[in-house]
Amino acid sequence: MSNTSLKPADIMPSLIVSDVDEKKIDLVDRVSDSPWKMIVVYRGQHCPKCTAQLNELAKMHKDFKEAGVEVVAVSGDSHEQLTKHFEKIDINFPIYFGLTIKQMTDLGLHISEPRSDAETDHPFAEPGIFVLNEKNQLQMLDISNSPFVRPDLEQLLGGIKFSRENDYPIRGTFIK
Q1: How far apart are the C-alpha atoms of 27 and 38, rounded to whole Å?
Q2: CB-count exposure of residue 22 (10 Å: 0-12, 13-18, 19+)
Q3: How many CA atoms lie within 13 A of 114 on its CB side?
Q4: Do residues 109 and 41 make contact, with C-beta atoms less than 8 angstroms apart?
Q5: Is residue 76 pLDDT above 50, yes or no?
Q6: Residue boundaries of the structural domains of the chain
Q7: What is the pTM of this model?
Q8: Do β-strands 36-41 and 69-74 pair in parallel, antiparallel, or remain unpaired?
């Protein structure tokens, strides 16, 4: 599979995944009146860094909402793994499962294989954050190849607020 690596200002492609009730949804669609959307891709329930990030994001969810940003999270986990993860997370935003390897590749995410069966039973995406503006363009994106490299959520929120309040352009679009 080729890696299409989405670029800043690209329109986010449709991402069909499943919710906790196993209903298919498109992650790009808004379920609130927030004009912007942030899609957080996490490694899966096996990752303590992801659990910490999701719990931190839950504490900041109101701040993101007040800034006009709808927040969702998704992984390549199964329904059973997502259900198990609820034992470790206390979230107040939608979380989804079933991100496919093709979707991970199309998003330009780095994909890892488990180190052992104790970790998980499938290849998984390393962390990624996609911030969509009201036109579903990639206003901001962060893609990591390691669980240890993630943006600071306070700094990210500040950048989103600044961008929205000042009509800050999408950066990183220069083509030689």
Answers
A1: 10
A2: exposed
A3: 14
A4: yes
A5: yes
A6: 16-20+34-165
A7: 0.95
A8: parallel
Q: Residue 139 — left, alpha, or beta (φ > 0 → left; ψ -120 to 50 → alpha)?
A: alpha
Residue type, 14: S
**CATH superfamily to which 16-20+34-165 belongs:** Glutaredoxin (3.40.30.10)
pLDDT reported for residue 143: 96
Yes or no: say if 37 and 135 are a contact pair by the CB < 8 Å rule. Answer: no
- Count CA atoms within 13 Å of residue 80 on its CB side: 2
Give the pLDDT score at 4: 57
Three-state DSSP class for 130? strand
pLDDT tens for residues 38-58? 999 999 999 999 999 999 999
Nearest to 131 by CA among 55, 51, 71: 71
15: helix, strand or coil: coil
What gap in Å lies between CA 144 and CA 148, rounded to an integer? 9
Q: What amino acid is encoded at 53 in this protein?
A: Q
User: Residues near 157 by Cβ (< 8 Å), separated by ≥ 6?
Assistant: 60, 63, 64, 67
Residue-wise pLDDT for 155-170, tens only, equals 999 999 999 999 999 9
Residue 3 has a pLDDT of: 46
